[in-house]
Design the sequence.
Protein backbone atom coordinates (compact mmCIF):
# COMPACT_ATOMS: atom_id res chain seq x y z
CA UNK A 1 0.00 0.00 0.00
CA UNK A 2 1.38 3.40 -0.96
CA UNK A 3 1.36 5.77 2.01
CA UNK A 4 3.26 8.55 0.25
CA UNK A 5 1.13 11.69 0.62
CA UNK A 6 3.36 14.01 -1.43
CA UNK A 7 3.04 14.42 -5.19
CA UNK A 8 6.29 13.74 -7.06
CA UNK A 9 6.50 17.45 -7.94
CA UNK A 10 6.11 18.67 -4.38
CA UNK A 11 8.38 15.93 -3.00
CA UNK A 12 11.11 17.10 -5.41
CA UNK A 13 10.60 20.78 -4.58
CA UNK A 14 10.76 20.06 -0.83
CA UNK A 15 13.82 17.89 -1.33
CA UNK A 16 15.53 20.62 -3.36
CA UNK A 17 14.72 23.11 -0.61
CA UNK A 18 16.20 20.75 1.99
CA UNK A 19 19.44 20.72 -0.05
CA UNK A 20 19.27 24.51 -0.50
CA UNK A 21 19.12 24.95 3.29
CA UNK A 22 22.24 22.77 3.64
CA UNK A 23 23.87 24.95 0.99
CA UNK A 24 22.91 28.06 2.94
CA UNK A 25 24.58 26.56 6.02
CA UNK A 26 27.75 26.01 3.95
CA UNK A 27 27.69 29.65 2.88
CA UNK A 28 27.44 30.91 6.50
CA UNK A 29 30.17 28.45 7.49
CA UNK A 30 32.46 29.60 4.67
CA UNK A 31 31.86 33.29 5.32
CA UNK A 32 32.42 32.72 9.05
CA UNK A 33 35.75 31.05 8.30
CA UNK A 34 36.66 33.92 5.96
CA UNK A 35 35.74 36.53 8.61
CA UNK A 36 37.78 34.85 11.33
CA UNK A 37 40.76 34.55 8.99
CA UNK A 38 40.50 38.31 8.36
CA UNK A 39 40.56 38.95 12.11
CA UNK A 40 36.80 39.62 12.50
CA UNK A 41 36.09 37.12 15.25
CA UNK A 42 32.80 38.80 16.26
CA UNK A 43 31.39 38.62 12.74
CA UNK A 44 32.63 35.07 12.43
CA UNK A 45 30.92 34.10 15.70
CA UNK A 46 27.58 35.46 14.46
CA UNK A 47 27.89 33.68 11.11
CA UNK A 48 28.89 30.39 12.74
CA UNK A 49 25.90 30.60 15.09
CA UNK A 50 23.63 31.30 12.15
CA UNK A 51 24.82 28.32 10.15
CA UNK A 52 23.29 26.12 12.87
CA UNK A 53 19.94 27.72 12.15
CA UNK A 54 20.26 26.79 8.47
CA UNK A 55 21.04 23.18 9.43
CA UNK A 56 17.88 23.20 11.56
CA UNK A 57 15.91 24.40 8.52
CA UNK A 58 17.37 21.54 6.51
CA UNK A 59 16.28 19.05 9.21
CA UNK A 60 12.75 20.44 9.25
CA UNK A 61 12.38 19.76 5.50
CA UNK A 62 13.93 16.30 5.88
CA UNK A 63 11.58 15.36 8.73
CA UNK A 64 8.56 16.73 6.90
CA UNK A 65 9.27 14.67 3.77
CA UNK A 66 9.59 11.56 5.95
CA UNK A 67 6.45 12.32 7.94
CA UNK A 68 4.44 12.61 4.71
CA UNK A 69 5.56 9.15 3.68
CA UNK A 70 8.20 10.08 1.10
CA UNK A 71 11.91 9.42 1.06
CA UNK A 72 14.39 12.31 1.24
CA UNK A 73 17.26 12.06 -1.21
CA UNK A 74 20.55 13.23 0.22
CA UNK A 75 22.84 14.65 -2.46
CA UNK A 76 26.12 16.52 -2.60
CA UNK A 77 26.05 20.17 -1.46
CA UNK A 78 27.23 22.78 -3.95
CA UNK A 79 30.29 24.84 -3.09
CA UNK A 80 29.61 28.07 -1.20
CA UNK A 81 31.51 29.90 -3.95
CA UNK A 82 34.09 32.64 -3.71
CA UNK A 83 34.93 34.32 -0.41
CA UNK A 84 33.59 37.85 0.05
CA UNK A 85 36.03 40.60 -0.93
CA UNK A 86 35.27 42.68 2.17
CA UNK A 87 32.76 42.99 5.05
CA UNK A 88 30.35 45.03 2.93
CA UNK A 89 30.41 42.40 0.18
CA UNK A 90 29.89 39.67 2.80
CA UNK A 91 26.65 41.19 4.08
CA UNK A 92 25.37 42.22 0.66
CA UNK A 93 25.76 38.59 -0.36
CA UNK A 94 24.07 37.34 2.85
CA UNK A 95 21.10 39.64 2.19
CA UNK A 96 20.87 38.53 -1.46
CA UNK A 97 20.95 34.85 -0.45
CA UNK A 98 18.17 35.34 2.08
CA UNK A 99 15.93 37.11 -0.44
CA UNK A 100 16.61 34.31 -2.92
CA UNK A 101 15.69 31.75 -0.27
CA UNK A 102 12.42 33.54 0.47
CA UNK A 103 11.56 33.49 -3.27
CA UNK A 104 12.33 29.78 -3.37
CA UNK A 105 9.96 29.11 -0.45
CA UNK A 106 7.26 31.30 -2.04
CA UNK A 107 7.55 29.09 -5.08
CA UNK A 108 6.82 25.92 -3.08
CA UNK A 109 3.92 27.65 -1.30
CA UNK A 110 2.48 28.43 -4.75
CA UNK A 111 2.88 24.80 -5.78
CA UNK A 112 1.16 23.57 -2.59
CA UNK A 113 -1.66 26.04 -3.24
CA UNK A 114 -2.05 24.90 -6.85
CA UNK A 115 -2.21 21.24 -5.74
CA UNK A 116 -4.49 22.07 -2.78
CA UNK A 117 -1.98 20.25 -0.55
CA UNK A 118 -3.03 22.17 2.56
CA UNK A 119 -0.83 20.16 4.93
CA UNK A 120 2.29 21.17 2.99
CA UNK A 121 0.95 24.70 2.67
CA UNK A 122 0.48 24.81 6.44
CA UNK A 123 3.96 23.38 7.09
CA UNK A 124 5.47 26.11 4.89
CA UNK A 125 3.86 28.93 6.86
CA UNK A 126 6.51 28.44 9.56
CA UNK A 127 9.14 29.15 6.93
CA UNK A 128 7.32 32.26 5.70
CA UNK A 129 7.57 33.71 9.21
CA UNK A 130 11.14 32.50 9.53
CA UNK A 131 12.14 34.19 6.27
CA UNK A 132 10.65 37.44 7.55
CA UNK A 133 13.12 37.16 10.44
CA UNK A 134 15.97 36.08 8.20
CA UNK A 135 15.52 39.00 5.81
CA UNK A 136 15.13 41.46 8.69
CA UNK A 137 18.32 40.21 10.33
CA UNK A 138 20.26 40.34 7.04
CA UNK A 139 18.95 43.86 6.41
CA UNK A 140 19.95 44.97 9.96
CA UNK A 141 23.44 43.56 9.53
CA UNK A 142 23.87 45.24 6.17
CA UNK A 143 22.62 48.55 7.61
CA UNK A 144 25.29 48.38 10.34
CA UNK A 145 27.98 47.97 7.71
CA UNK A 146 26.53 50.77 5.54
CA UNK A 147 26.43 53.17 8.52
CA UNK A 148 30.08 52.29 9.21
CA UNK A 149 30.98 53.35 5.65
CA UNK A 150 30.06 50.31 3.54
CA UNK A 151 32.82 49.24 1.18
CA UNK A 152 34.87 52.27 2.33
CA UNK A 153 34.53 51.61 6.09
CA UNK A 154 37.80 52.29 7.88
CA UNK A 155 39.49 50.03 10.42
CA UNK A 156 38.04 51.89 13.43
CA UNK A 157 34.48 51.57 12.13
CA UNK A 158 34.96 47.90 11.28
CA UNK A 159 36.39 47.30 14.75
CA UNK A 160 33.08 48.50 16.22
CA UNK A 161 30.96 46.56 13.71
CA UNK A 162 32.90 43.41 14.54
CA UNK A 163 32.54 43.97 18.29
CA UNK A 164 28.77 44.63 18.03
CA UNK A 165 28.02 41.69 15.76
CA UNK A 166 29.79 39.27 18.07
CA UNK A 167 27.32 40.20 20.83
CA UNK A 168 24.20 40.26 18.65
CA UNK A 169 21.42 37.69 18.65
CA UNK A 170 21.33 35.78 15.38
CA UNK A 171 17.59 36.31 14.98
CA UNK A 172 15.60 39.52 14.54
CA UNK A 173 12.55 40.97 16.30
CA UNK A 174 9.63 41.18 13.90
CA UNK A 175 7.38 44.21 13.46
CA UNK A 176 4.47 41.99 14.62
CA UNK A 177 6.17 41.57 18.00
CA UNK A 178 6.61 45.29 18.66
CA UNK A 179 4.36 47.23 21.06
CA UNK A 180 4.02 50.89 22.06
CA UNK A 181 5.92 50.14 25.27
CA UNK A 182 8.53 48.10 23.43
CA UNK A 183 9.23 49.78 20.10
FE1 LIG B 1 17.08 28.95 5.93
O1 LIG B 1 16.89 30.75 6.25
FE2 LIG B 1 18.41 31.72 5.89
O2 LIG B 1 18.62 31.10 4.24
Sequence:
Amino acid sequence: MDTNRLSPTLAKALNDQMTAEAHNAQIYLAYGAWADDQGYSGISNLLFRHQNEERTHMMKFLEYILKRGAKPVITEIASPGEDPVNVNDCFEKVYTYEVKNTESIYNIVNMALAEKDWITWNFLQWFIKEQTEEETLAMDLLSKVKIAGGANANADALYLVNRDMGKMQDSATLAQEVSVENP
The helical segments are 8-37, 41-67, 87-115, 118-147, 155-167.
